[in-house]
Design brief:
Blueprint: H1 2-11, E1 14-16, H2 25-44, H3 54-63, H4 68-95, H5 98-101, H6 103-125, H7 130-141, H8 150-158, H9 165-196, E2 210-212, H10 213-238, H11 268-276, H12 280-292, H13 296-300, H14 312-333, H15 340-373
Antiparallel strand pairs: 1-2
Helix pairs in contact: 2-4, 2-9, 2-10, 3-4, 4-6, 4-10, 6-7, 6-9, 11-12, 11-14, 11-15, 14-15
Domain Cytochrome b/b6 C-terminal region profile: 203-374
Keywords: Electron transport, Heme, Iron, Membrane, Metal-binding, Mitochondrion, Mitochondrion inner membrane, Respiratory chain, Transmembrane, Transmembrane helix, Transport, Ubiquinone
Main location: mitochondrion
Length: 374
């Protein structure tokens, strides 16, 4: 009986009629999460988490398993789609200031983003190609920057004195478990969202023109999911290796270092920030703050502020942040040489400067308008 009531409450949630296509990203992310779990389950049936067999097991999946190439390609490209939609979802939340009306839901959403980044990194290591091995070596070595305990932390993550068999086993176990943890966080995210309901382009929840979530928005979500599936199928069928580094088609070789080590595209903005700081510890701190800064928005923001659609200053700062994000992503993909290193330093400084400016922009805009009205 309680389950029926919960479903009725979910389908009958009062939803503003004015919400646009940007609100589809949340439902698409839920579908992609379930898709990644199911496809990952099928892949795990044929994957072997042993350094001597991991790469060959991936070749076996691609060549010998019926439909294996498609499932593996959809899983790999599905991860890229997931992060593309999570950036769209977070961008929409920043633009329409969802962190003001739904602070707890925002906090859980940022946590989902962090755990998703960890899960994607672990999955990137599993094919045991050249870029997988050296990416794991570089990223895990960042823990050595932690004072006093850094070296011990690195060896604990590795399960030895270098990236090897224990590392791969641990990463495979965590990569399999963490998506279920993300699903739990997603459920909590939805529960907090339903406390006040969705916002709308005006940036508030007390809109008088509301309709039941079903059938109006369930059909819109289904259409959005179908469009994404069509796009994903086109990528898998015609450009399956569009976002795959060619180095990862070679088996991991600890004796040969790739000329240019870089993570997947959705980590490149943080990678560029890491490289822009000369100090290793400073780079690790900046890397963490580049994502953890999102937690500050609900805490530091002033409730009485002008919604972004009515504030030119807030809109300008938001699109500056989007531009800086794209620039950092491009810089992260560039070689570690001049002039890219010099360019990344001021861009990183602008990235961190934009956060406090965005937090206060709505309040400043409201004060300016109030002053002129008086």
């Amino acid at each position: 009986m309680r389950k029926i009531q919960a479903v009725d409450q979910m389908l009958g949630l009062p939803t503003p009629v004015s919400i646009s296509i940007w609100w589809n990203a949340g439902s698409i992310l839920g579908f992609l999460l379930m898709f990644q779990i199911v496809s990952g389950l099928f892949l795990s049936m044929h994957y072997c988490s042993d350094v001597s067999a991991a790469f060959n097991s991936m070749v076996h999946i691609m060549r010998d398993v019926d439909g294996g190439w498609m499932i593996r390609s959809m899983h790999a490209n599905g991860a890229s789609m997931f992060f593309l939609m999570i950036y769209v979802h977070m961008g929409r939340g920043l633009y329409y200031q969802s962190y003001l009306t739904q602070p707890r839901s925002w906090m859980v959403g940022v946590s989902i983003f962090l755990v998703s980044m960890a899960t994607a990194f672990l999955g990137y290591v599993l094919p045991w190609g050249q870029m997988s091995f050296w990416g794991a070596t570089v990223i895990t070595n960042l823990l050595s920057a932690v004072p006093y305990f850094g070296v011990d932390m690195v060896q604990w993550v590795w399960g030895g004195f270098s990236v090897g068999g224990p590392t791969l086993n641990r990463f495979f176990s965590l990569h399999f478990i963490l998506p279920f943890f993300i699903a739990g966080l997603a459920a909590l995210h939805i529960i907090f969202l339903h406390e006040k309901g969705s916002t709308n382009p005006l940036g508030e929840t007390n809109h008088i023109s509301k309709v039941s979530f079903h059938p109006y928005f369930t059909w819109k979500d289904i259409v959005g999911i179908l469009v994404l599936l069509i796009f994903l199928c086109l990528v898998v069928m015609f450009f399956p290796s569009l976002l795959t580094d060619p180095e990862n088609y070679s088996i991991a070789n600890p004796m040969v270092t790739p000329t240019h080590i870089q993570p997947e595209w959705y980590f490149l903005f943080a990678y560029a920030i890491l490289r822009s700081i000369p100090s290793k510890l400073g780079g690790v701190i900046a890397l963490g703050l580049s994502v953890l800064a999102l937690y500050v928005f609900p805490v530091a923001s002033i409730k009485r502020s002008l919604p972004t659609p009515f504030s030119f200053l807030s809109q300008f700062l938001f699109w500056c942040l989007v531009s800086v994000f794209f620039m950092l992503t491009w810089l992260g993909s560039c070689p570690i040489e001049e002039p890219y290193l010099s360019i990344s330093k001021p861009v990183t400084a602008i990235y961190f400067l934009l956060f406090p400016l965005m937090i206060s922009s709505g309040w400043v805009s409201l004060k300016i308008i109030t002053h002129y009205i008086k």
